[in-house]
Amino acid sequence: MTVEQTKNLTGSAHYKARSLRRILILSGMTIALFLSFAVDLATGPANYPLRDVIFALLNPSDVSDQLRVVIWEIRMPVALMALTVGAALSTAGAQMQTILANPLASPFTLGISAAAGFGAAMALVLGVAILPAFVEFIIPINAFIMAMATALIIHFFSRMRGVTVETIVLLGIALVFTFNALLALLQYLASEQALAAVVFWTMGSLVKATWSKVAITAIAVAIALPLFTRQAWALTALRLGDAKAESFGVNVQSLRLKTMLLVSLLAAIPVSFVGTIGFIGLVGPHIARMLVGEDQRFFLPASVLCGALILSATSVLSKLIIPGAILPIGVITALVGVPFFFSLIFASRRKSW
Hints:
By secondary structure, this protein is mostly helical. Helix content is 78%, strand content 0%.
């Protein structure tokens, strides 16, 4: 056996071992996600043993009526909403970081979530429908159109000559402040009832989750994930740089535009239902990247699992901090995400030095 053949065998064995390790990590995250989901169902004003909750999930007809109603009708939509919203926001953040080559990119930090919240507030306060033909879906459609418009603005500026990662971050900060100022103006003009609804968006909460909202959010994730999976190789190549990706035959501009539109969908739908929940799209992808690397075949499912797990665990925490009360989940994610955000900023500065 030649030296070259030995190297090929060694490289193949190393690749298989690394792939197996990533699969085991994804399997462990899936188990952790199921446990967090079960704990989320078990906790609340009335706590239930975890074994009873798991039994109720597997055998709903063999438990008491009270337990079945609490688990399946009251807590199940909220727990599932945490999973779907976390998965959607983390996936959106992961792909924004990929196509913009920006470690600080996420729907929250670049203003897409703020834009979606402002679109929803326009419907709540002013009754303005951006698409009058779909008045019955005024809130999610307003949120989606505003988020998509903001994503296209970011995409346009990112393609301009001389635009750097720092410029995109500053643009995102400017958009966040702009939409927050517009949102504050709407709050000032709002009636008491509309003001209470707008405050709900700014804090973020899962308590108003319903089966229909869970279904719509899950459909958005189900639409985006297969499309991202089909482009997994191209998205992985994009991390090597535009020139390298184009040499592999990737249409970089088309890929960025399609990804931005899907990111808008994944960011707008959750915000339109549960309000602004920050930093999931920033923290989830970075944890996934540290665990499995940049290969989209593993990075994409890891981002989905990380986002869902983080928000599910946060949902549990929101019910445990103050017994008998449920804190707004957006407040908790911000408290967790801000230190992580600072660590990324300082890490970026150390690399630039």
